[in-house]
Amino acid sequence: MPLGFTLPVFGKAAATPGGIAYYAREAERAGAAGLWVGDRLLSPVAPVVPYPGYETMPEEFHTAQDPFTALAIAAAVTETAVLGSSTINATQYQPANLARLLTSIDVASNGRLLPGFGIGWSPDEYDAVGVPMGERGRRLDDLLDFLETWWTRDIVSHDGIGYTVPASHIDLKPVRKPPVHLAGFGGKALQRVARRADGWLPAWSIPEAFPADVITSTLAQLRAEAERAGRDPQALGVALRVNAAPGTDLETIAASVTKIVELVKPDHTFVDLSYVVGSVEEQLDKTGRLLELTAEG
């Protein structure tokens, strides 16, 4: 089973000098198929909307690395692992800067970038970047249009929401057009996935927060909607995030990963160990052990 892991971008491990490069290099050597990042700008003391499942924010989010820097570091010290995001809060970034960042990372990694986007849920973060949260759906649609232009045309121009790009030479192109995956379970979000995305970003929690058929039935709906839109339903990819809760032992994680992969059959699977490790060394040790356990299973 190809299995990936999140880079140490959250929690105590994220503060380790040189930790991202060290973990990325050694995790790939151990057999990690992918290296992934999440995106957290703020961890408010009194959030307007708490993190789902919490009364406030997880302590791990008090320390957060920049996801693009983490992916660029990983690109420089690895050769084969997929470099993915699940998820980047894409509508909190200026589109032209985001397009250049993503293209540069894809070139640096020789075409290994898998950008996964969401629109976030935190009013505090939207206030911090000066973007109206109520526009996030429209802004994501606009961004997808803009990235298509940036990645496929030599002369790029775009009239976007709150920004204008005059006709400009954009000769730096990705090695191949990165397969954009989108997150979401809501109606509009799922329609956008089916009609516009290259793949979907579901998440699975250990212990299980909901039945597995929530994912499998949603995936079936997505593929049916994609077919109605004239797309190949089997071309819609799946990158599955597995979140392990604090205190979860490795045998339980391995068994749950094996179970959900057999049911969903995702193209990419990765485990987030942010909540169960305290150091880069511990994360690397548990990465190696999980690779062994899932191989045995």
Polypeptide structure, described:
The chain is an alpha/beta fold and 297 residues long. The chain has one domain (4-296): Luciferase-like domain (TIM Barrel, Alpha-Beta Barrel). Helix content is 40%, strand content 17%. The strands form two sheets. Strands 1, 2, 3, 4, 5, 6, 9, 10, 11, 12 and 13 form an eleven-stranded parallel beta sheet that branches. Strand 2 (34-37), helix 2 and strand 3 (82-85) form a beta-alpha-beta unit. The N and C termini lie close together (9 Å). InterPro entries: Diverse_substr_monoxygenases, Lucif-like_OxRdtase_Rv2161c, Luciferase-like_dom, Luciferase-like_sf.
Keywords:
oxidoreductase activity, acting on paired donors, with incorporation or reduction of molecular oxygen; alpha/beta; Lucif-like_OxRdtase_Rv2161c; Luciferase-like_sf; 297 residues; TIM Barrel; monooxygenase activity; Luciferase-like_dom
What is the compact description of this entry?
With 297 residues, the chain is of the alpha/beta class.
Instruction: Please estimate the helix content.
Output: 40-55%
Instruction: Classify the fold: give the CATH topology.
Output: TIM Barrel
> What class, by secondary structure content?
alpha/beta
The first-level CATH class name: Alpha Beta
The span between the termini is 9 Å
Question: In total, how many domains does the architecture comprise?
Answer: 1
From the spread of the alpha carbons, the general shape counts as globular
Q: How is the biggest beta sheet arranged? A: 11 strands, parallel
Q: CATH homologous superfamily name?
A: Luciferase-like domain
Based on the coordinates given, report the CATH architecture: Alpha-Beta Barrel
Q: DSSP helix count?
A: 9
Determine the mean pLDDT: 96
Secondary-structure element order, as H and E? Answer: EHEHEEHEEHHEEEHEEHEHEH
InterPro entries: Diverse_substr_monoxygenases, Lucif-like_OxRdtase_Rv2161c, Luciferase-like_dom, Luciferase-like_sf
Keywords: Monooxygenase, Oxidoreductase
Domain Luciferase-like: 14-260
GO molecular function: monooxygenase activity; oxidoreductase activity, acting on paired donors, with incorporation or reduction of molecular oxygen
